[in-house]
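F.,

This is the one I mentioned.
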């Protein structure tokens, strides 16, 4: 097994894919922790779908499949989507989940229309933009991996520098506003970071599955700790491990996509967390309930023995009663 692993990753292309997938999982897990704690799990899904028309428009304007231009186009589309969600939520009676669903549907529909137009155009066969729906990590080249590495490091660095601010924003926005923090700016800035993470991951995981890589590692990490710092670190580690496992399984089994396998690996880690986490896991809770039940039974037995010693006549009478 180890020999197969070493042989597999001697290929430079496999090394690039492995590095890109792990960095994507790391940055997505770190950012997803704050989105999960703010109860904005659907936001990653909405922004991922909203990024598709931005990618298509960037390709139509430039004519090249460059992750840099895709990043610019998708960020612009994502920012328009976030402002649209905020405007609808603030100025109408529509709640945020409904606004997210509306934006997701409209932008994704527009993206599919533009994608179809591109595929039927003169450069459609060379564009390969249909791979952005479900991802194709094998299409990454060294330049794409370098871009992903720089963006992932910057995302993790920004989250580290603004950890206290994001922590207050996640747990108590009223207190954060009271001490003078620019809550509205930080909220939009966090959405911007999620958009950047989504765009970087589209080529590997795809529009449809990117939200799973944002949220699943964070939910898994929440089972293992009560501290935010540890949770963010674990979430990033789970994301990186998911990227590693997805790349490894994809390389070992021919013709299996890396992105969906990374998502399935993250789901497997989530199942392990649900079952075997030390305090919140189902097995730990079952063992705790069993131990409490045994303690209760042991506590009742001395009371029953004491009762029979204090009332021997009544016990004898009850035994003699037909």
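My design for it:
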């Amino acid at each position: 097994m180890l020999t197969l692993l070493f042989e597999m990753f001697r290929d430079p292309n496999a090394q690039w894919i492995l590095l890109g997938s792990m960095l994507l999982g790391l940055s997505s897990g770190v950012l997803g922790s704050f989105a999960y704690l703010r109860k904005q799990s659907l936001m990653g899904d909405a922004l991922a779908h909203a990024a598709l028309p931005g990618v298509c428009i960037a390709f139509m304007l430039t004519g090249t499949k460059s992750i840099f231009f895709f990043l610019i186009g998708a960020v612009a589309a994502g920012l328009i989507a976030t402002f649209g969600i905020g405007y609808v939520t603030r100025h109408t009676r529509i709640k945020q989940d409904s606004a997210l669903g509306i934006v997701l549907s409209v932008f994704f529909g527009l993206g599919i229309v533009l994608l179809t137009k591109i595929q039927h155009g003169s450069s459609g066969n060379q564009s390969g933009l249909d791979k952005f729906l479900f991802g194709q990590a094998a299409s990454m080249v060294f330049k794409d991996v370098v871009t992903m590495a720089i963006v992932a490091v910057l995302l993790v660095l920004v989250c580290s520098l603004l950890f206290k601010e994001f922590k207050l924003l996640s747990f108590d926005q009223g207190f954060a506003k009271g001490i003078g923090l620019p809550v509205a700016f930080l909220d939009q800035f966090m959405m911007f970071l999620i958009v950047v993470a989504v765009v970087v991951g589209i080529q590997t995981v795809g529009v449809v599955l990117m939200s799973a890589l944002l949220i699943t590692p964070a939910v898994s990490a929440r089972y293992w700790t009560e501290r935010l710092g540890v949770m963010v670190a674990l979430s990033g580690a789970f994301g990186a491990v998911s990227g590693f496992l997805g790349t490894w399984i994809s390389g070992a089994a021919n013709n299996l996509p890396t992105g969906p396998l990374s998502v399935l690996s993250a789901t497997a880690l989530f199942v392990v967390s649900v079952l075997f986490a030390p305090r919140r896991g189902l097995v730990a809770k079952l063992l705790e309930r069993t131990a409490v039940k045994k303690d209760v039974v042991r506590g009742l037995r001395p009371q029953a023995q004491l009762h029979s010693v204090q009332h021997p006549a009544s016990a004898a009478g009850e035994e003699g009663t037909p």
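Residues 278-309 form one domain.

Talk soon.
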